[in-house]
Design brief:
five-stranded antiparallel beta sheet; Thrombin, subunit H; mainly beta; 2 domains
């Protein structure tokens, strides 16, 4: 009887071992990189502006003013200062701000793809007068627009703003040696920016590859607000009857600088700056010319040499339209022209002039001033006053009536 029991047990064990080897001979984790789209929930845009206590500007990109106030823009909103003494008043929170300008008491600002018109007569009680939905997502070239899809998990429309690499792990076995990412793909493929930070561990984060859209730009040109249109600049105006738009120019080389990275108005000239160069328009005639120059960060026009341009690219100054070399800066991100002296703002304020070298038959940049105590990311000149937004110390005002002796006023 014992022999029979032993034989039965041996048969069971052998059968179990065969079955185990058949289904579980080996298994191991497999990690791979997968790219998934990243979305922005449209509901994050449709929130009212918020008035917050003042704090120092971070990543300032532009400074504008009216007769009473200075407005410093960053990607999260606008910092407001009194114009007479630079005293910080408050912060107007506008999520996903990329462009803005002001005429009178009307502030025109981008709110991701929406255009806002804000009454800032009393900045402490700023209010939205008008919101134009998807204003910056209507280009006739669909490649410059952000895809909009409906996200089932949150039951709302979302904008695809980029892509992200994620390290994901699945189990493979001898029976299924090819990794199956279908369940993981289903989990990650519809994440919004907010959900990413909630659900994906920081350890598996890789750089987000953003599309760089929406493409926006807003400038004040002699009391008129302009933005980017389909074939050139578009004029905006707002009355109690609402927002009106009109195409003000047709620029033949417009699409050569799209997508744009900057829209500026300096010294009677409009600059539309893109990745491959810039278009400049003489105002008010609006005669346009395309200039190819890769990596343009900023540009100014100068009169000596006659009718030339100085381009800032990768912190280096370059001269166009005349034989010349290059000039180094202290990490400059913006430049302005004061009587043919170039002021370059970065980790310091450097002053440059062009001089003609007969022996070299070339124009040469000469650094004629260095102010290591002046630094920032954005500046605005009004007459003899220079407003500078420092990254963590706030707004400073300088007297530049004597460039050899720039003095802090406030």
């Amino acid at each position: 009887m014992k022999k029979i029991v032993y034989i039965v047990l041996l048969f069971v064990l052998v059968a179990c071992e065969d079955k185990y080897e058949l289904t579980h001979r080996w298994s191991r984790p497999h990690t791979g990189q997968r790219m998934y789209p990243i979305y922005l929930d449209a509901r994050e845009i449709l929130v009212d502006i918020q008035i917050r206590p003042p704090f120092n500007p971070q990543n300032a990109f532009k400074i504008v003013s009216n007769d009473k106030y200075i407005f410093v823009g960053s990607d999260v909103g606008i910092h407001v200062f009194k114009k007479d003494d630079g005293f910080p008043l408050n912060f107007i929170q506008i999520n996903h701000l990329k462009a803005f300008d002001i005429v009178g008491n009307l502030l025109f600002a981008s709110n991701f793809v929406d255009l806002l018109v804000i009454d800032v007569e009393d900045p402490a009680n700023a209010r939205i007068l008008h919101r134009e939905r998807d204003f910056f997502n209507r280009y006739i070239n669909s490649g410059f627009n952000l895809p909009v899809v409906h996200n089932q998990s949150i039951n709302a429309n979302v904008y695809e703003i980029g892509q992200k690499w994620v390290n994901v792990t699945v189990t493979i076995t001898d029976a299924n040696p090819d990794p199956d990412f279908s369940e993981v793909d289903e989990y990650y493929r519809s994440f919004t920016v907010t959900q990413i930070h909630q659900h994906i561990p920081h350890a598996v984060h890789q750089d987000i590859q953003l599309h760089g859209r929406p493409h926006v730009g807003i400038i004040n040109v002699e009391g008129n607000i302009y933005t980017l249109g389909n074939n050139g600049l578009m004029r905006l105006s707002y009355t109690s009857g609402g927002l009106t738009t009109s195409q003000s120019s047709n620029i033949p080389d417009y699409w050569q600088v799209m997508p744009t990275s900057n829209l500026q108005y300096k010294d009677g000239m409009v600059f539309i700056i893109g990745n491959s160069g810039f278009v400049h328009l003489d105002y008010p005639n609006q005669n346009s010319t395309f200039r190819q120059w890769w990596g343009v960060m900023d540009v100014v026009s100068i009169q000596v040499p006659a009718n030339s341009f100085v381009v800032l690219g990768n912190t280096i100054l370059s001269l166009l339209d005349a034989p010349g070399g290059m000039g180094g800066t202290w990490g400059a991100t913006s430049i302005i022209n004061v009587d043919d002296t170039i002021l370059a703002l970065g980790s310091a304020l450097t002053l440059h002039r062009l001089s003609w070298q007969e022996n070299w038959w070339s124009w040469v940049f000469q650094q004629v001033g260095l102010y290591q105590n002046i630094s920032g990311r954005a500046m605005l000149r009004e007459g003899d006053r220079l407003f500078v937004a420092h990254s963590w110390q706030g707004l400073f005002v300088y007297d530049i009536s004597d460039l050899d002796n720039i003095i802090l006023i406030q």
